[in-house]
Amino acid sequence: MALIFVIEDNDSIREAVSGYLKLSDYEVEEFEGLSGVKEAMASRNPELLILDAMLPDGDGFIFAKEIRQKSDIPIIFMTARESESDRITGFEVGADDYVVKPFSPKELVLRVGAVLKRTGTALPQKKMHGWTLGGQVLTTDEDSHKAMLNNQLLKLTAAEWKILLYLSSNGGAVVSREQILDRCLEYSFEGYDRTVDTHIKNLRAKLQNPDWIETIRGYGYRFAGNST
Questions:
Q1: pTM here?
Q2: pLDDT tens readout for residues 121-148
Q3: Sequence-ordered list of residues with C-beta below 8 angstroms from that of 167, at least 6 positions apart, any chain
Q4: If 0-12 CB within 10 Å is exposed, 13-18 middle and 19+ buried, where does residue 200 land?
Q5: What's the whole-number mean pLDDT along residues 77-82?
Q6: Is residue 50 domain-shared with residue 147, that is, in the same domain?
Q7: Were both Cys, which of 1, 53, 65, 145 would link to 79 (CB 3.0–4.6 Å)?
Q8: Phi, psi of 59 (to 5 degrees)
Q9: Which domain covers residue 176, as residue numbers?
């Protein structure tokens, strides 16, 4: 999945944007300011930056200009600076898109997809994944819809496969029952929470270790495997 850096000092905005991106299967790393971003870019190789223009430890425009001198990584400005001159400055220093606050997080996610497609950095997603936990090795193959535990094929139902793939692809983030219903089971009605719990119970049994999927009381579940 594409890795996106979100650089925004407003906690609520940053968390909302990151949440929507994760729901759209992007990997996200959050920063409250510019500190540490360059170092992180050197080791993590993000596919796109979402950057505020006004940060507590520096100017986003200046930072983007510095990045542009040595990298063509896509940049989307996410800022309250809405004047025409600010927009022009943003594009002059190398922005691929410019979003003015307040904005719709859903629209921003669509813009992210469009920029990645337009710039040719929407790399093919890795179709095979592996995780370890307590001496067990779990692998999934998205093309064949197969999961292997210690090299043994798991006999999963279609619903169990979708839930396993969805949980594991969220990078350790907590997902709610409602999200699982919507993304994996296509249910959107009240009263189906127990259906999710039943699928999780069966999935844990087939994984031979309940620790693969943590229960987060009052909210939902989290995949606990360590990516290999």
A1: 0.54
A2: 554 455 788 999 999 999 999 888 889 9
A3: 175, 180, 213, 221, 222, 223
A4: buried
A5: 88
A6: no
A7: 53
A8: -95, 125
A9: 128-227
SS in 3 state form for the chain?
CCEEEEECCCHHHHHHHHHHHHHCCCEEEEECCCCCHHHHHHHHCCCEEEECCEECCEEHHHHHHHHHCCCCCCEEEEECCCCHHHHHHHHHCCCCEEEECCCCHHHHHHHHHHHHHHHCCCCCCCCEEEEEECCEEEEEECCCCEEEECCEECCCCHHHHHHHHHHHCCCCCCEEHHHHHHHHHCCCCCCCHHHHHHHHHHHHHHHCCHHHEEEECCCEEEECCEEC
Which amino acid type is present at position 147?
A
Separation between Cα atoms, residue 109 and residue 121, nearest integer Å:
15
